[in-house]
Amino acid sequence: MFKNSLIIIGLLLFSVSIRSQDIPKINFLDIEDAVINPDGNYYYPKLLERYNAFDPSLTITDYVYIYYGFAFQKDYLVNQPGEERMNQLMEKGQYEDAIAECNKILEKNPVSLEANNALAYAMFQLNKPEAEYEPYRNRYKTFVDIITQSGDGKSPLTSFKVIYVADEYNIMFSHFEIPEIVFRHQLVNAGYDYFKIKPSALYKSEDIYFEIPEKLNNIHKERAREKARKKAEQQQ
Question: What SUPFAM superfamilies does this protein's entry cite (predicted)?
């Protein structure tokens, strides 16, 4: 994630109104069924083709299936966005190179929050026409709207739904402007991430919960088992 100051400035410059359409309730199992059904309205290859073409007829519901549906694609875990170089380029103000890096990320992971956000901001800094950066700005803002309306984050049952851990941090720092994380606890068996935080003007609770898809949760479970195994070995 590139510097918070850049993100905050970018969001102020790129603020757009939340779409008026209602966001459907997020159920990962229902979404999986929909995006793998070739005869359905939300079959992922068809949705992704429209998304990559910036089809203006895409609805907020379409975007829900595009974002969460990516978690049920073959290379979902392999294509977790590696954003370190992009962030470094953004921090150095090397916007032409940052744009190239953003495009590399989006080619593999078109729903990357940070790459869409950074690409729009870099284009803006280079005085590109608004018509060029606006689609990426709107993608980012729409995904953030979907995530932040998927719950209120105050309990496991009302958690914010995300598909990557990186998106948890994006929502906390870039959207809610959380000043500090006190600690993080993975509720591994339940499939949630819990953070104790210092509240901000935009998020006033000290607790924030995120829910993640089963595939990512399985990795967390395996890591927790490995951590427990190593701890047991050290105690022997």
Answer: TPR-like
Residues linked to residue 124 through DSSP beta bridges, in sequence order: none
Per-residue burial over 215-233, b if 16 or more Cβ lie within 10 Å, else e, is: ebbeebeeeeeeeeeeeee
Nearest to 141 by CA among 173, 113, 115, 106: 113
Cα dihedral sign, 174-178-180-182: negative
At residue 213, the pLDDT reads: 79
State the CB neighbour count (10 A cutoff) for residue 5. Answer: 9
Is residue 207 within 8 A of residue 178, CB to CB? The reply is no
Asked whether 107 and 66 are in contact (CB, 8 A), the reply is no
What residues does each domain of the chain span?
Answer: 152-235
Is the pLDDT at 19 greater than 50? The verdict is no
pLDDT tens track for 22-67: 788 898 889 989 999 999 999 999 999 999 999 999 999 999 999 9
Q: In sequence order, what DSSP letters do the residues of 36-96 get, joined into one string?
A: T-TTSTT-HHHHHHHHHTT-TT--HHHHHHHHHHGGGSTTTTTT----HHHHHHHHHT-HH
| Max CA pair span of the chain | 64
Region 153-169: what's the mean pLDDT? 93
H-type helices in the chain, by residue range?
A: 4-13, 28-35, 44-52, 60-69, 84-92, 95-108, 113-125, 130-148, 165-169, 214-235
